[in-house]
Amino acid sequence: MRHKVLFLLQIVLRLMQKQQLPENYSQSKVDFLMFGPAKTEASPCDWLPDNYWGSVVALMEINDFSALGDAISKEATVRFKEWFNEIDPEMRRVPGDYKHIEGKFEKLMVLRAMRPDRLTTAIPNWINGILPYGTEYTDCDGKLSPLEVCTDC
């Protein structure tokens, strides 16, 4: 399953790069998702571990996320803490001014920074939404349907 998701992610990213899907491709965003660069900084929030805060600081270097640190530590800290503590944050809206990223690649980046443990669920969900008939690719198990089996061969 893990390799199938990585393979599908590669295909989807390539389709984005070729402008065949509605998401805009950005190499810096893809690099962040794949490599998860992090800074070494102490978290200003008692609920967010330092290593996750370092990832948030690295994410803030990407244009669309320059205000994320202030949103987490000052403006919407209670809502971000609730979101962070959710069992399934990938299914919830990102708080603050980031509600517009629902169902988009950018939400994967926020999850990569703050809840990397949820990427194994979030990536297939995102692929389901971005690819036409996405569930046909993510939910298949490799078995042949009864119509595809030839008994006379």
Can you walk through the features of this model?
- By secondary structure, this protein is mostly helical.
- It has one domain (2-138).
- The chain is 51% helix and 0% strand.
- It has eight helices and no strands.
- It has helices spanning 2-17, 27-35, 50-59, 68-75, 77-84, 105-114, 119-130, 134-138.
- Helix 1 (2-17) packs across helix 7 and helix 6 runs antiparallel to helix 7.
- The model is unreliable at 144-153 (pLDDT under 50).
In short:
Helix content is 51%, strand content 0%.
Number of strands: 0
Distance between the termini: 30 Å
* Mean pLDDT rating: 85
Shape: globular
List keywords for this structure.
153 residues; mainly alpha; 51% helix; disordered C terminus
Q: Helices, strands, pairings?
A:
Blueprint: H1 2-17, H2 27-35, H3 50-59, H4 68-75, H5 77-84, H6 105-114, H7 119-130, H8 134-138
Helix pairs in contact: 1-7, 3-6, 4-5, 6-7
